[in-house]
Amino acid sequence: MLFEDQESLMELMTFLNSQSDQINNVIFNIQDENFRFILEDPRNDSSNILTPVYHESSMQGTGIMYRVIDLKGIINELRNHNFNNERCKLKITIRDNFIPDNDGSIIVDFNNGFPTIVDNKEYDVEINLDIADFSSLITCTVNFKSLYKYGRALISDESYLKKVNNIFASDEKPICMTMF
After folding, report:
1. Which residues of 92-101 are buried (b: 16+ CB within 10 A; e: fewer)?
2. For residue range 86-142, what is the model confidence (pLDDT) as tens digits?
3. Residue 86 CB: number of other CB atoms within 10 A?
4. N or C: which end of the chain has fewer CB within 10 A?
């Protein structure tokens, strides 16, 4: 479901609601985890009760999975992207058992949010993670705090957790409209 603005969405929802005498359920294939908040009753038609007393409201699946194939290349491509105005020399250590050139460390100097790969050995903090998790992080499908909390990423100084999380934070997650 695509819509241009809040007014368009509300008109569409009003129309669907006006059909309630003819339609029991509407199935939305969406990629917005917060969509349930627009619904007065977010339950689906399964009548499944999850322990202890939660009503099933949706099904979730993982589809497209992105993979960074060139760590240095993606940082260079994003040199004009502002990573939330953060300042930090971040050592990124990646484990990649498929592409040897990705396996290892780089130091990225985020200066007012703009990244530059630097050759010096000085850095403020180091993160360590698998290329699959870094790929999800750089595309903003997961935040760093979640990767750290679930043991998927390490950080050398926990006092930098909020800063590193903010470097890779985005208000919008990617969506893919291609059906395979």
Report:
1. bbbebeeeee
2. 999 999 999 999 999 999 999 999 999 999 999 989 999 999 999 999 999 999 999
3. 20
4. C
Residue 50 burial (CB count, 10 A): 9
Give the DSSP per-residue string, 159-173. Answer: GGHHHHHHHT--SS-
CA-nearest of 60, 95, 96, 62 to 174 is: 62
Spacing of C-alpha 10 from chain mean position? 26
3-state secondary structure of 4: coil
**Distance from the Cα of residue 79 to its chain's centroid:** 20
Q: Partners of 179 in the beta sheet?
A: none
31 in Cβ contact with 173 (< 8 Å)? yes
How far is 105 from 121, CA to CA, in rounded Å? 11
pLDDT digits (tens, 9 = 90+) for 170-179: 988 888 777 7
Q: Rg (Cα) of the chain, in Å, rounded?
A: 21
Query: What's the pLDDT tens digit per position in 41-94?
Result: 787 878 888 888 888 887 777 777 789 999 999 999 999 999 999 999 999 999
Residue 154 and residue 99: Cα distance in Å, rounded? 21
